[in-house]
Design brief:
The protein is of the alpha+beta class and about 290 residues long. The protein has eight helices and ten strands. The radius of gyration is 27 Å and the shape is elongated.
């Protein structure tokens, strides 16, 4: 039997060797097809692939902003970095009109902000517009924005007003992460009198110029924005492209723009306790602890 096989092989050796590359290519193609079937059989792996394709489209400039849908799917494993008081610094100015009291922030984020402030030259300061936002304040702010939209657009339904409000302020029932985690900050560079440098729009002013790299601003305004982004990026923050003043570290938005679907380290700092009350889910280490309710 073996002799017969060897004899047959010698007779057809030339033809086999000629077709060997085709056999190899076919085998490789078969292996790839089997692997793809196995890979896409998993819903989890399909979600991972869609997320990374979406992030790649943003990185290549094919998308201006990452979808809220994909940001909401980022997994968070909270490292329980505590909320602490945002203490003063010679190069930090607090905008008390927009800040919530007590002014809390994640400890690691605070250290990063301090390092940024330490590098600022004389006459340049970091103005803090917003840090940690409690769920109660978020609900109040969300309802206020809805009321404004309804007043400016007579006849609009509440459902449509809520959709528009989500582009202007945090949805208290959303899952994107942000100010409710204590990892997001709204900032601007300003002079010693607290006057912001020219960014083309004011804080929380929404129009075509609000996008960080908007084409509707001057070169000088764009230069100011790029300088702010560079300072924050050096400490690991990411800028939300839809708002030149918003920066994140550790939350879902930060992880999404970093391309880390499993990389969120800051979840919401509060949980619903019922009856309109919320309780902290992470440590709160204040210099002087005060109850808010």
């Amino acid at each position: 039997m073996l002799e017969y096989i060897l004899e047959w092989y010698e007779q057809h050796k030339a033809a086999i060797m000629a077709k060997l590359p085709y056999f190899a290519a076919g085998l490789i193609a078969l292996i790839i097809i089997i692997w793809l079937i196995w890979y896409f059989k998993s819903k989890r792996r399909r979600r991972h692939l869609r997320f990374h394709l979406h992030h790649m489209a943003y990185t290549l400039g094919l998308r201006k902003i990452m979808s809220r849908r994909y940001i909401s799917k980022v997994h968070v494993h909270d490292n329980f970095d505590p909320l602490v008081d945002f203490l003063p610094h010679k190069h930090i100015i607090f905008n008390n009109v927009t800040l919530e009291e007590p002014n809390l922030i994640r400890r690691e984020v605070l250290f990063k902000i301090y390092r940024i402030a330490d590098r600022l030259p004389e006459g340049v300061n970091l103005k803090i517009y917003k840090t940690f936002r409690s769920r109660i304040k978020m609900s109040e702010g969300f309802e206020h924005v809805i009321s404004q939209i309804v007043a400016e657009n007579p006849g609009i339904g509440r459902h449509e007003a809520m959709k528009l409000a989500k582009f202007k302020t945090e949805d208290p029932k959303g899952s994107l992460g942000g100010h409710e985690t204590g990892g997001a900050v709204d900032v601007a560079l300003c002079n010693n009198e607290g006057v912001d440098f020219d960014y083309g729009t004011k804080f929380h002013e929404y129009n075509d110029s609000t996008f960080t790299y908007s084409r509707h601003i001057t070169k000088a305004q764009l230069k100011n924005r790029k300088k702010l982004v560079k300072l924050m990026k050096k400490e690991g923050f990411v800028n939300f492209p839809g708002e030149w003043w918003h920066f994140s570290y550790g939350d879902r938005m930060w992880a999404a723009y970093k391309g880390k679907r499993n990389g969120g380290i800051y979840g919401s700092a509060e949980t619903d306790m019922g009856g309109g009350k919320y309780g902290f889910t992470i440590p709160v280490k204040r210099t002087v602890y005060e109850k808010r309710w």
